Amino acid sequence: MKRLSAVLCGIILSAILIGFLSTVEIHADKGKPQYVHPEALASTDWLQTHLMDDDIRIVDCTVSVINPDSYNKGHIPGAVSLDVIGQLSDPKGRVPLLILPGSQFEKVMGKLGIGNDRTVVVYDEFGGTWAARLWWALMYYGHDNVKILNGGLGKWKAEGREIETEASVATPTVFKAKTQASLIADIEDVKQAIEQDNIYLVDALTADHHFGRKPFGPNVAPPGHIPSAINIPGPSNINKENGLLLAPVELKEHWSKLKANSQDKVITYCGAGYYGAFDLFALYQLGYKRVSLYDGSWIEWISDKTRPIATE
Q: Residue 31 needs a FRET pair 20 to 30 A away by CA distance; which of 117, 147, 196, 298 works?
């Protein structure tokens, strides 16, 4: 009887082991790891194929403070121009560069020909690090059918694809905002993150700024970071060799210093919500489900001199 029991146990254990190994093999057969949201990332090949689609709206995200004339020097055919700083910022905000209120955002999108039924592709000259502001803003206002062009204008040009200099004129339409409050964080959320171990802060500014060595710019001095924040600079999510978003395996490794799991709250920030939006995009591709952008970012944090600044 004991021998029979031993045999049966052996059979059961073997079956469990075989099942486990089969599961591993099936998982391996799925191929290389993928982004969790590949639909939010457009390749240049995909855009070329859909360039003339009626339901596509392409937006060249000009950064006025860096290269205000970039759109006129050459853009992707059919792209409309948006100054992501000048046109998306609330002139009456409690601090500079906060995102526009919903009603004003609706007007800007409508003038660009962006309706709720459009697929929007956003790009810039910097691999998406600034265009991510519009990607986040559209997501925040309930339009998740938006993609960042992987590699941006640089990759498009490098591949010898068509460029035009004549401005594209959009047919105005109606955009209705549906605010997704979970995608934005305020200063109270940040204070809570400092106090609680299960809410994580990520600073997307440069390492020099984060560690107090040199401010990112004159409007975000003094340098340093919000206590408890880790540092993942926005541009560091881009492969320096090809200008693309880091491949899934590389991106996961790059974010290994973040000890949060995919269900934990993570708040990103930078100087004013631009690089922070790109970090949020990276987290979105990694499958983090509770991510938000501290829109006030460092500009708001340092507006009150009593708030602590860390440099280590």
A: 147
The CA-atom distances, in angstroms, between 67 and each of 63, 73, 148, 154, 193 are 6, 10, 20, 14, 36
pLDDT at position 100 over 60: yes
Q: How far is CA 254 from the centre of its chain?
A: 15
Helix (H, G, I), strand (E, B) or coil at 56: strand
Q: Quick check: is 270 catalytic?
A: yes
- Residue 14 lies inside a defined structural domain of this protein: no
Instruction: Write the CATH number for 83.
Output: 3.40.250.10
User: Is residue 129 in a domain?
Assistant: yes
Nearest to 153 by CA among 87, 250, 73: 73
Amino acid in position 291: V
Mark whether 113 and 194 lie in a shared domain.
no
Number of folded domains that form the chain:
2
User: Do 53 and 175 have their domain in common?
Assistant: yes
Rg (CA), the chain: 23
Kindly report, residue by residue over 166-201, the tens digit of the pLDDT.
Answer: 999 999 999 999 999 999 999 999 999 999 999 999
Residue with tokens 């500009």: 299
Packing angle of the helix pair 132-140, 275-286 (nearest 10 deg): 70
Angle at the Cα of 17 from the Cα atoms of 15 and 20, rounded to 5 degrees: 110
Q: Which of 183, 270, 280, 286 is catalytic?
A: 270
Three-state DSSP at 262 gives coil
Cα-to-chain-centroid distance, residue 243: 15
Note the pTM of the prediction, 2 decimals. Answer: 0.89
CA gap 60, 145 in Å, rounded: 17
